[in-house]
Amino acid sequence: MVIIQSSLSPRLNKHLNDHIFLSHTHDPEDGFANLENSSEWIEDDRSSSSSVDIQALVEQSRNTKVTSEVESYLQNIVTFLRMHRAVDGGINPRATKFFKMFIKCLAPLSGLHYVTPSLVAIAARKVYPHRIILTVPERDRSLQYGSELAAVEAVLDGVTPEAIIEDVLTAVEAPL
User: Which long-range contacts (CB under 8 A, 24 or more apart) does 20-26 make?
Assistant: First the structure.
């Protein structure tokens, strides 16, 4: 587990980042809903799941069905992420493998035996944000075709990995 205090702090190096399964962001201003005032719950040796529960979830995830339409949807998301003008890298085969694995794990946790498009969107929001390498304006592909650097800088100003993922999820049509 790696904890980074804020999105403004430096990102992990490329090789370490590639081995992190998923990312999660929690704003302290949102509060800590399950955190009690006392620390007693930490000390009392209660676990949230047993090894039997985990083995059952592993087996259920192996048996989770992914239709061809949903498989096409997730491949389109990966393709659109790779081709997005603000992405310079990070959408590699390992990330795609983790993406597919996480999707199949989310279904049993949601009480389903199959993957839905909404689970694919949730997984994309968790697997890719820390992997996306943002392009710098000087490396934008449109400069090869005569775009002005100032215009590219204006387009790429303030773009975040989360915004890229939302842009892709909006652009890719989910199956019914």
Answer: 20/130, 21/98, 21/102, 21/127, 22/98, 22/102, 22/126, 22/127, 23/126, 23/127, 23/129, 23/130, 24/126, 25/129
